[in-house]
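B., you asked whether I could sanity-check this one before it goes into the benchmark set. Here's the sequence:
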Amino acid sequence: NLKFAQPSMIQSKAVPLIMNEPHQNVIVMAPNGSGKTGAFSIGSTARVDPTIDEMQIVVLTNSRELCNQVANVYELLTKGTTITVQNFAHAKKKAHIVVTTPGAFLQMIGQRGAPTTKKLRCVVMDEADEFMKDDKSFGDILKIKKKLEGINFQWILFSATFKKEYLDNQVYQLMEKAQIIKLESKKIAEKLQHIKQYHLKCEPRKKLEFIMDVFETCAMTQTFIFVNTKDFAEVIHKKLRKNGLSSYIMFGRMTKEERDDTMQKFRDQQINVLITTNIIARGIDVPQVELVINYDVPTQKVNN
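And here's what the prediction gave me:
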């Protein structure tokens, strides 16, 4: 269903560690595009016992969009099996694998009649470093750990990178020991030669003109435009629409339903240009995208 012909480097290293006994905590650091989602989804699915009709795998993501994407991978992976997948924690439904956000998971297990966590085998954190950047996000993770006290489960943390301070502090609060796998970005650089990067120095007021030049010169394709503020997104959106281009804005204050609908329309190519802030900058995979424009310089430096 996922059209995997052979494992990537990170999959060949991580999947056996997740699957095989004794089950140890696992921390994986690997660049985007290296096959991290396939690694933790295959490894954790292999640990499910479909004869036990209880929640066994919880996958935590930092956004609804990433939640939908990861859940889709699990659904394709388990198609034709009796293993069940739940996208976004729901207290009235039971599933072997639950893909959700920390807040939704805490809300679910706090309700009367919620599915039991007693048979839990793995807690996966995708883009794990995102949960460690502020006290609120990591506070939810610590609350989950406390709720799961007494249960023998495996922590599985995946991210492009971890700051040393995260490993020394936040990660240590979750687990004392873990197997760490680190794949250097240079090891997969040769596989990404098809990605070309360019930068252009121009006056601020000329940026919008440049974007219009791009779309006049190139054939229309699926495009992400990243900006720092919603105000700039509105300006670009109006200009593109005025020139007959199919664009849309996605930002944090939209309802969950609006964000889901917008992302699906973009995947289905009903929308050609998606203008957004960094709410979907991490972990999102849309194979149809051929152009990414950073309209603004990011305000935070990540991975040096």
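One thing to flag: DSSP finds nine helices and eleven strands in the chain. Otherwise nothing jumped out at me.
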